[in-house]
């Protein structure tokens, strides 16, 4: 009898497993329409927002779609909605396929909406949708988000998700835009002790932009011509308690990225003043490598807190416009000191701006202050938000030049 029960249980087990291996819950790729970018604007209707969806066709450019497909690679739709979560159902009244946020890569919010006091209330709805990943990016557009997506027409990339992936990844690697994931945004808004930087972008170029150094621009100010898309990602939008309050240039954003050890910036190309040149406009091209974390010490007791930041950097010299002889040790010492002074000034100017204009530090520096207090109550009593504004900040750049490039101590003769 026991053997009979055992056999029955085994048979029942295999019957159940057989039913579970079916394809009844399978979803086809072509059944869904994937939102790659989501734009948010203020609506003319009170209590509503304008939602813009950049929808990608997953079959275009894929093996499944084939090379001869006549379908469009993208589709853009804009409409007013109460929130962007329920907007998926509204969009299905004009889009045949089921709307999905599973591949949502970037949120583009107009600067106008990002500065609105009600922005945080609306944007925190992100946390309620399980399809939206917190490693998606937040970008602020100079124009309305609906207009931004319509003007954004990449020439090199057929698939829109690849375009944004490349633009964002390369911009973060170069340090010209911040690593502004949703996770960082919500962390900063919750702490309320530091500022958050979101990447700044636009699809409208200025008519006659002023020529500056390559990293001093804001999005739209780079005068690039030719057969290219007008969209630019340079600089950052500054958020305080979840609301946009100001902007930083590409150079200022890069400075913050070097200060912030939580970013992925490791290797960037920059121009630095040439200490041996007669003309102040001559610049040295250099590669800056950050292989170690910054050293931070604080003395927080007293009327004026003292903050000491040491930034260790390695450099490779890529050009030598003045033809200086870097084989001489005195020239190497002069170059190292000049670069260190320049980097220290850039950092101190930015941090002074953060104290006087931004009224907060644009990266998670307050986290380093907690270890100087025995209890959370002591830290709260210290009141970082107010104490930081009167702190004395000292920045030291430890420069190690690992490669001086080709030695050019005399002019090169050309011809006979």
In short:
Helix content is about 30%, strand content about 25%. It has about 425 residues and is α/β, with parallel strands linked by helices.
Describe it.
The protein has 416 residues and is α/β, with parallel strands linked by helices. It has two domains: 30-261, no CATH class; 266-416, 2-Layer Sandwich (GMP Synthetase, Chain A, domain 3), CATH 3.30.300. It is built from twelve helices and 14 strands. It has helices at residues 2-20, 87-91, 111-114, 119-123, 145-151, 160-174, 182-191, 250-259, 329-358, 366-369, 376-382, 384-387; strands spanning 32-42, 49-56, 74-81, 98-100, 106-110, 137-141, 196-202, 232-240, 243-248, 267-273, 283-289, 295-299, 306-317, 392-403. Strands 1, 2, 3, 4, 5, 6, 7, 8 and 9 form a nine-stranded mixed beta sheet that branches. Strands 10, 11, 12, 13 and 14 form a five-stranded mixed beta sheet that branches. The radius of gyration is 27 Å and the shape is globular. The model is unreliable at 23-27, 63-68 and 408-416 (pLDDT under 50).
List descriptors:
GMP Synthetase, Chain A, domain 3; single chain; 12 helices; 2 domains; 416 residues; alpha/beta
Secondary-structure map with pairings?
Elements: H1 2-20, E1 32-42, E2 49-56, E3 74-81, H2 87-91, E4 98-100, E5 106-110, H3 111-114, H4 119-123, E6 137-141, H5 145-151, H6 160-174, H7 182-191, E7 196-202, E8 232-240, E9 243-248, H8 250-259, E10 267-273, E11 283-289, E12 295-299, E13 306-317, H9 329-358, H10 366-369, H11 376-382, H12 384-387, E14 392-403
Parallel strand pairs: 1-4, 1-5, 5-6, 6-7, 13-14
Antiparallel strand pairs: 1-2, 2-3, 7-8, 8-9, 10-11, 11-13, 12-13
């Amino acid at each position: 009898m026991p053997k009979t029960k055992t056999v029955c249980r085994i048979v029942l087990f295999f019957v159940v497993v057989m039913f579970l291996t079916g394809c009844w819950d399978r979803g086809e790729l072509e059944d869904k329409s994937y939102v790659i970018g989501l734009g948010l604007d203020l609506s003319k209707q009170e209590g509503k927002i304008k939602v813009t969806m950049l929808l990608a066709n997953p079959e275009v450019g894929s093996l499944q779609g084939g090379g001869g497909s006549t379908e469009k690679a993208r589709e853009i739709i804009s409409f007013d909605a109460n929130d962007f979560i329920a907007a998926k159902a509204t969009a299905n009244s004009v889009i045949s396929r089921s709307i999905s946020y599973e591949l949502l890569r970037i949120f583009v919010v107009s600067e106008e909406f990002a500065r609105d006091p009600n922005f945080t209330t609306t944007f925190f709805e992100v946390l309620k949708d399980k399809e939206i990943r917190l490693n998606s990016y937040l970008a602020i557009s100079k124009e309305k988000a609906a207009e931004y997506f319509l003007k954004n027409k990449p020439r090199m990339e057929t698939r829109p998700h690849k375009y944004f992936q490349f633009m964002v990844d390369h911009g973060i690697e170069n340090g010209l835009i911040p690593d502004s994931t949703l996770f960082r945004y919500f962390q900063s808004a919750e702490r309320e002790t530091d500022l958050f930087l979101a990447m700044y972008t636009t699809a409208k170029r200025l008519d006659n932009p002023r020529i500056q150094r390559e990293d001093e621009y804001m999005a739209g100010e780079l005068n690039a011509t030719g057969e290219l898309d007008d969209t630019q990602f340079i600089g950052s939008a500054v958020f305080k308690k979840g609301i946009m309050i100001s902007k930083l240039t590409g150079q200022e954003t890069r400075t913050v990225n070097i200060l912030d050890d939580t970013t992925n910036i490791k290797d960037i190309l920059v121009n630095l003043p040439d200490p041996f040149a007669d003309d102040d406009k001559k610049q040295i091209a250099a590669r800056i490598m950050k292989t170690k974390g910054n050293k931070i010490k604080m003395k927080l007791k007293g009327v004026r807190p003292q903050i000491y930041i040491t930034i260790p950097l390695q450099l490779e010299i890529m050009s030598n416009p003045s033809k200086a002889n870097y084989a001489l040790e005195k020239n190497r010492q002069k170059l190292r000191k000049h670069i260190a002074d320049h980097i220290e000034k850039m950092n101190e100017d930015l941090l002074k701006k953060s104290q006087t204009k931004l009224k907060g530090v644009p990266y998670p520096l307050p986290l380093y202050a907690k270890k100087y207090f025995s209890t959370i109550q002591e830290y709260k009593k210290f009141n970082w938000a107010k104490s930081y504004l009167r702190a004395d900040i000292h920045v030291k750049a430890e420069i190690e030049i690992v490669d001086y490039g080709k030695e050019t101590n005399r002019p090169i003769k050309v011809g006979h």
